[in-house]
Design a protein that fits this description.
This protein has 378 residues and is of the alpha/beta class. The protein contains 11 helices and 16 strands. It has 2 domains: 121 residues, NAD(P)-binding Rossmann-like Domain (Rossmann fold, 3-Layer(aba) Sandwich); 215 residues, 2-Layer Sandwich (Dihydrodipicolinate Reductase, domain 2), CATH 3.30.360.10. Helix 1 crosses helix 9. The structure holds nicotinamide-adenine-dinucleotide. Nicotinamide-adenine-dinucleotide binds next to loops.
């Protein structure tokens, strides 16, 4: 193996590709060399502007001289394309959410293990320095036992809701609306910091008059963790401001506030002996910047880490099993919305064993509040 990884891109025309490209542009250990896309125009643009050797046939792409593949396609395609890449013997990093059902995640885990390649989900929230700081200080006891949390992600993605043909936020191709698309970031990050979810309750809302194949654009999810923490996750794709995130964690010995819009994204109150300032708020210096910088920074670290795992033959610390747990919380939230009550992980596992988790995505529109009828967007 050389001292850098040659990557090919599946979904070379994807919108998120530009942030991976920007985040890794000064990384000598990563070279993006080729791309595959079913859209000839997008492929031609990727060839022109990103200097990717273009492939319009998957089998030919998989035979080109690459070590690893980055999969940047609609959610319902993640499973088949990750398996195809693994079977071709290439390492694979695939965008979030891992897949639309737990059964698809299982197939991906089995196939990638069998192929003996490195496999990681591109969950950039796990690689954002602000989140890594929070994970570290919570683990070291800076705020004691966490009992309360609040998180928020807001984006304005209305254009994706109005076209029924766009795959984004659809039940069939997206795996649901904003809970699947944005919520999964929060769930994966919170599971990492707080451990296993015990139960959830979720409310789904359409604030935009989107076609019936589109899921919710706004949701509130209440999560109860086995560690004793209760957390609310508020997410929306119709809030009118640039993309942002916030997380707040309160523990028995202190508090952390985090806001992606702040230059110093974390404010912490702690009396821990190792705290920089004891008994008063302080904001450590952390690599960060409001959108789009935090995309570039987190994706840059994520891709660098995956390349490092390949070059140094290490198993990625962020495992596919953990990414699957993020999808499990998405499906638990949806199941609770259908049940209209708090629903436990054990109940989700019953559905998994009996009907299969695809069944949860059916009929979600009926339990989604049609709040657009009360709103004036003109
Ligand atoms: N981490 C983040 O914050 C973040 C942000 C945006 C998107 N994403 C994720 O990135 C992925 C792609 O999303 P996007 O918004 O960039 O999508 P997109 O619709 O902009 O791009 C998808 C690309 O895949 C191509 N494609 C579709 N079907 C294909 C097939 N069968 N074979 C090959 N190419 C195919 C399309 O032509 C298009 O170029 C999704 O998983 C999404 O959730 C992550």
């Amino acid at each position: 193996m050389s001292d850098f990884v040659k990557f090919g891109i599946i979904g070379a025309g994807s919108a998120v590709w530009r942030y991976h490209k920007l985040g890794t542009k000064n990384n000598p250990r990563i070279k993006f060399v080729s791309g595959y896309d079913i859209d000839e125009n997008k492929l031609a643009k990727a060839a022109k502007y990103s200097k990717l050797e273009p492939f319009s046939k998957l089998d030919e792409f998989l035979k080109n001289d690459i070590d690893a593949v980055m999969v940047l396609v609609p959610h319902y395609l993640h499973k088949d394309l990750v398996i195809a890449v693994a079977e071709a013997g290439k390492h694979v990093i695939c965008e979030k959410p891992m897949a639309t059902t737990l059964e698809e995640c299982d197939e991906m885990i089995t196939a990638t293990k069998k192929a003996g390649i490195k496999f990681m989900i591109a969950e950039n929230h796990r690689f954002l320095p602000a989140h890594q700081f929070i994970k570290d200080v919570v683990q070291r006891g800076f705020i004691g036992d966490v009992f309360l949390g609040r998180t928020y992600e807001g984006a304005y993605a209305a254009s994706q809701f109005f076209s029924a043909d766009d795959w984004g936020f659809t039940y069939t191709k997206g795996g649901g609306g904003v809970v699947s698309d944005q919520g999964v970031h929060k769930f994966t990050m919170l599971n990492w910091i707080l451990g296993e979810v015990d139960s959830a309750q979720c409310w789904l809302s359409k604030t935009l008059k989107s076609p019936p194949n589109k899921g919710e654009d706004t949701a509130i999810i209440l999560l109860r963790y086995k560690c004793g923490a209760t957390v609310t996750v508020d997410i929306s794709s119709s809030t009118v401001h640039p993309l942002t995130n916030k997380t707040e964690l309160h523990g028995t010995k202190g508090t952390i506030f985090e806001d992606h819009d702040w230059e110093r994204p974390v404010k912490i109150f702690s009396s821990h002996p190792e705290a920089e300032v004891k008994g008063a708020y302080y904001s450590p210096e952390i690599e960060h910047g409001p959108f789009p910088d935090y995309y570039k920074i987190s994706m840059g670290h994520e891709d660098a880490y995956f390349a490092e795992c390949i070059l140094e033959d290490k198993k990625p610390e962020f495992t596919p099993e953990e990414a699957r747990q993020g999808v499990a919380v998405v499906l638990l939230a949806y199941l609770s919305a259908k049940n209209g009550r708090m629903t436990s992980m054990d109940e989700l596992m019953e559905v998994y064993k009996k009907e299969g988790t695809r069944s949860i995505l059916q009929g979600l529109g009926e339990v989604t509040q049609k709040n657009y009828e009360k709103l004036n967007w003109d």
